Amino acid sequence: MRKLEVSLPEQSYSILIGSGLLAKLPNLLEMQGVQKQDRLFLITDDQVAIHYLEPVRRSLSESGFSIDFAIVPHGEQSKCVATYESLIGKLIEAGCNRKSVILALGGGVIGDLAGFVAATYMRGIRFFQLPTTLLAHDSSVGGKVAINHILGKNIMGAFYQPKGVIYDVDTLQTLSTRELQSGFAEVIKHGLIWDHSFVDWLFQNKEELLSRNSLYLTEAIERACAVKVAVVSQDETEQGIRAILNYGHTIGHAIEGTTSYSAYTHGEAISIGMVGSAWMSEKIHSSSQGLTKMTEELLTHFGLPVKLRTPLSEDKLMDYLRRDKKHTSTGFIFILSPIYGQVRINEHVPEGLIRQALHRIGAC
Ligand SMILES: O=C(O)C(=O)C[C@@H](O)[C@H](O)[C@H](O)COP(=O)(O)O
């Protein structure tokens, strides 16, 4: 088992990554201070539930924990006010109190949604992230929890850290190919923003990674999480450097939002967003020549899209970009890469350049 520590001013926690961790959940929770009398409430989705709900529920009940659960439909549409409110109702009905603990068993949607429920139920109760997708190496760490508004992604949210992340890599074996590939977008992002040797390693080991070799996946998750931990521990609430974790997300969120979260997975949208960002980087920084081609090659190797499948309106994407959380009254802020393996926060990116980048990725 690999272990990383997230050290934050108010609270620190561990990320445990390894095989067979869900089976050890009762012990791992007790080691993190959860007691048998603390009511557990597990939140998952209908796809994850098929594989993991019963074994997890049974092992916790047989170990003496009392556990209730709720299953929501899979997909980004569940990150909404209606699902949030219904979950709060279920917690009340189950008798959850301030000592109760939420278990977020699933991918990024479940982690964000259950985390937001935990952050707000009775003004905040403990929660653990139990990621079951590759993409969730990113969303489970760092405490960004949120639900979407029809006009914007993650608009209602909080910075609310989990008490721990328990990442059983065996769960990646049941992911669909599309979901696995989607997760690589965020893994690649962590390399592109911080550590070019990690990007090279991903290139070299793509066969092992795509064939779900657990040792290689564990290594990839650990290295990507290490980048995230290094950034978040410097800037928990995104006052500055944490914005670099948004590389590719400005355009990516606009793609997801304008297609009502139905045409692209989060990873696919971020993949296309990173191509747009690489292209703008080349236009602004002469030192990043060749970045777009290299980014496209890497993403394509991992089965990710580098262009919109069907053209989207440039104006609609621009409207969405104006509502991006990084946007200020002084202009568009983009995370761009002056050199392979590093990024900077670029303020005042000209609208004309953004429009050209949108064309480059297939907007019309
Ligand atoms: O942790 C962060 O900070 C990130 O930006 C990571 C992103 O990959 C993640 O998708 C995040 O939820 C996006 O946050 P948002 O503030 O842009 O909504």
Automatic annotation (TrEMBL):
One of its GO terms (biological process) is amino acid biosynthetic process. Its EC number is 4.2.3.4. Zn(2+) binds at E186, H249, H266. Pathway: Metabolic intermediate biosynthesis; chorismate biosynthesis; chorismate from D-erythrose 4-phosphate and phosphoenolpyruvate: step 2/7. It is an enzyme of class 4 (lyase). It is found in: Cytoplasm. NAD(+) binds at G108, V109, I110, G111, D112, T132, T133, K144, K153, T171, L172, Q173, T174. Pfam families: DHQ_synthase, DHQS_C. Residues 71-181 form the 3-dehydroquinate synthase N-terminal domain. Binds 1 divalent metal cation per subunit. Can use either Co(2+) or Zn(2+). GO terms for molecular function: 3-dehydroquinate synthase activity; metal ion binding; nucleotide binding. Residues 183-326 form the 3-dehydroquinate synthase C-terminal domain. It comes from the Bacteria. InterPro entries: Dehydroquinate_synthase (IPR050071), DHQ_synth_AroB (IPR016037), DHQ_synth_fam (IPR030963), DHQS/DOIS_N (IPR030960), DHQS_C (IPR056179). Keywords: Amino-acid biosynthesis, Aromatic amino acid biosynthesis, Cobalt, Cytoplasm, Lyase, Metal-binding, NAD, Nucleotide-binding, Zinc. NCBIfam families: aroB. This is 3-dehydroquinate synthase.
